[in-house]
Predict the 3D structure of the following.
Amino acid sequence: MELLWADSGYTGGFAAHCLATLALVLPIVKRSDDMRGFVVLSKRWIVERFFAHLMRIRPLVRDFERRTASAEAMVYWSMTLLMTRRPARPHPERG
């Protein structure tokens, strides 16, 4: 990974820490003050969609796991289910 997106809760020294320690670029997606109601923010819907997919798997909704390895396995299982159900798109060069 080279790039992470974060919301305005991660402003401050965290972005500098990510760049210096982990060599990750961390742009902050901010909501402007003049927005009213529901407004889709760029890149933020990707994170919200990811969390929605994770919450479809019941063991991930509550903290049932005692070890992080089993919780990590549930995340892998959730993403595997997502990718196997996603229809394959034809590659433009292969026709």
In short: The chain has a mean pLDDT of 77.
